Structure prediction request, 568 residues.
Amino acid sequence: MAIAMGWHKPDNVAGSSAPAIMVGLFVATGGVLFGYDTGTINGILAMRSFKDQFSTGFRDDSGQLALRPDQISITVSILSAGTFAGALLSAPFGDWIGRRLSIIASIGVFILGVIFQVTADALPLLLAGRFLAGVGVGSVSVLVPLYQSEMAPKWIRGTLVCAYQFSITVGLLAASIVNQLTYQLQGAAAYQIPFGLQLTWAVILSLGLLVLPETPRYLIKRGDKLAAGLALSRLRRLDITHPALVEELAEIEANHEYELALSSTSYRDVFLGSPHLGRRILTGCGLQMLQQLTGINFIMYYGTTFFLGAGVVNPFTISLVLNVINVVSTVPGLFVVETWGRRRLLIAGSIGMAICQLVIAIFSTVAYDMKGLVAKLLIVFLAFFVFFYAASWGPVCWVVTSEIYPLKVRAKSMSISTASNWLLNFGIAYGTPFLVEEGTGYASLGSKVFFLWGAFCILGAVFVYCMVFETSKISLEQIDEMYERVHLAWKSRGFEPSWSFQQLRDEGFADSGIPPAEHELEPPRTGSTATDTSIQTIQTTENHTENSESEEDKAIRELGLSNVDFSY
Prediction:
């Protein structure tokens, strides 16, 4: 399956990656809920039947019933307020009942919110439904990348997490198509159908999750090593006693014990703990906030209404085209996230987005009296902007924030960094109408708002260069080692892992996390140092003859596994 998509599992990696890939891709479709719920309100706000039903008496310039700008703002942004709460709540639940069950519970909350939206006939119930749906979406936005990163093999981990962003774009496209098909309907069906269709995939996803395994790393965190071995056996398609599986499980456990020896698992340690957790949370929060400040959700939330004001003919069609570009452009990111790496892709995307935003802003300012030309330039350069975003910042931010945190605080750290994304999302969703619209109390920026987005894109490139470490092609445990040994982000690309966390654990911890000075730590071995008496492992004995190989190494050689990479 991976070969057909353009990737190839390294020959020296034991077992099969197909089960983990299929599980990762299925769970990634949780992004459809996120994308669809975000995208559907874009078109619904412009529907005549929606305005007639939910207007409180306000009329637009043409004398027709409409929602006031503050009502539009709260209708859009209340979802983001819910997602902020959901992202923060996801950590304690994810650590308490597990990643998988927490996702199922989050989908249940989302379904309740959708029911409220479908049955709403006035703004209060609609807002309550959007808030509840937001709580579910916010929790899913933390737990899905977390689940994916903890169960995926390292050689395709980035691509699987990128698939989550691809699913978001599919959800946005699906919402745009449904809006296109229903906006001319008469009566409540025009907006109830788009709202109600959200239930379809939510039910399918929750039923599928009932039969999927919990992540091995979470089970190690809970101390259930036998269950972790069984889960890893399903994902790698290896016998539970296979040396490669035993070695991977032992390294995960040893790394977790090493992390716990450095600091605790409290929220305080998310910011002040070791190794370098403060730098990591700053990186994650900075990336997530800058992702919002690129201006992408200005297009996704308010694109249709903005195009109307900019003189674009048939804005529903233009929004649909941009969503198609968004989906298609995510595919290049899936292919190059492992070969180019995270840093290069993010920097290239920042530069491309900045150029597009500034060109739109400059031409809109200089040629403001040439509406036809400005409308065409707006469409063309927004299409290029969406391409650069979808191939870089869209997926890769989720990849980086799902990788850089240690297991002991991974759920907490991801929830905080994702909550920062939703906090900015709320601010942009609520504040944009006040920035763009004309009138008393409004900034009346119009297309000049693209100067602001362009400046933040430039800031994003600088931030990535200074703060984002290259995490491709190394395991989650080896990322801990990188943060210990590499002090400058721009030097991280040349990092080569060499520590064995099992050896650190067995030979004693150093407070600084630096290997003991009297010897060099060996690279990860190709044998097993079993840590669980409930799992049968290869027993090793110490050979005191200087030039003879150990029983463990001899067993590995006789099994023909001397060239197998036991590190996932």
